[in-house]
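Consider the following assembly input.
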Amino acid sequence: MKKSFGPKTLVFPTPVWMVGTYDKEGKPNVMAAAWGGICCSRPPCVAVSLRKATYSYGNIVERKAFTISVPSETLAREADYVGIVSGKDADKFAAAKLTPVRSALVDAPYVGECPMVLECRLLHTLEIGLHTQFVGEILDVKVEESALGEKGLPDIEKVRPILFDPEVNTYHGVGRFVGKAYKIGREIP
Amino acid sequence: MKKSFGPKTLVFPTPVWMVGTYDKEGKPNVMAAAWGGICCSRPPCVAVSLRKATYSYGNIVERKAFTISVPSETLAREADYVGIVSGKDADKFAAAKLTPVRSALVDAPYVGECPMVLECRLLHTLEIGLHTQFVGEILDVKVEESALGEKGLPDIEKVRPILFDPEVNTYHGVGRFVGKAYKIGREIP
């Protein structure tokens, strides 16, 4: 038996990402975002939705670029902080002791301490309602060498990304290996 | 030191969702999708991107509705299967022994066995490239009562959603509690 929760933004899993931008004066800003996901394979694109009221919103409209830095569990406190405080009021990189690294590909900074970063140029802007969705073309994905595993590929258990539970308001880590994609389903005739 | 992987759809975490639709004849179909995420809080919306070549694509265009069913780890095999086989060739609900439940709110079926389901009416369609993004307004979220925890809220450790690693092609579970959102960041001055 299922219980009805009504119309709400409740789904699992949602990510914890840090969106990096520059403001008009070139000050780096970073905010937390959980409303997003990959949205196209060719060109490779990622979508992230922000409220117009955020400082980052204006930055993306102005600079037509943003980065997504994937914090590891060890950066959960910093990721939470940049989701609470506005870049209008604070230099969040400085306050959280995070390093803004200027992207060589797009006009935006990423978080040096994060094990995985995506550098994106703005491709589409979709007004939906309270949130505006920015679709960014992924020009590069960079991963910390210490987070690479077998065959030199990123190891999710070393990146240790964070999940956000949007109903209970909690963060969770990545758990055990469940199975191989495009393989375990072949057991079904 | 970070290693560059180039322009690709590589980010953590990405979800494993099952998208439910009806075809023209009313046959229920379900496919796996990892390209998606919440994209607006008001109205509550979720985005999911599909290739035009999929059977589900035509179904959503026709019916202007879809559901998202969140499989638990125990359904990883079924979720993988519905991502491998096309609804053009098979009755995937029947083959995977899944139950199509007709939504009372939108013109689409959901997977009865999944602990969490979202019923969505199509709000926007965005052509991006290989993928088309469908933005659905979430009319209801239903959660299995056995997956509820304290205070009657969905418990992520009972829902046990699956994560997809799009580079190594593996599925992973949810791990340990990391911290409280909107709280642990307040330790930073």
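Helices of chain B lie at 55-63, 76-84, 92-95, 156-159. Ask yourself how this observation constrains the way the partners meet.
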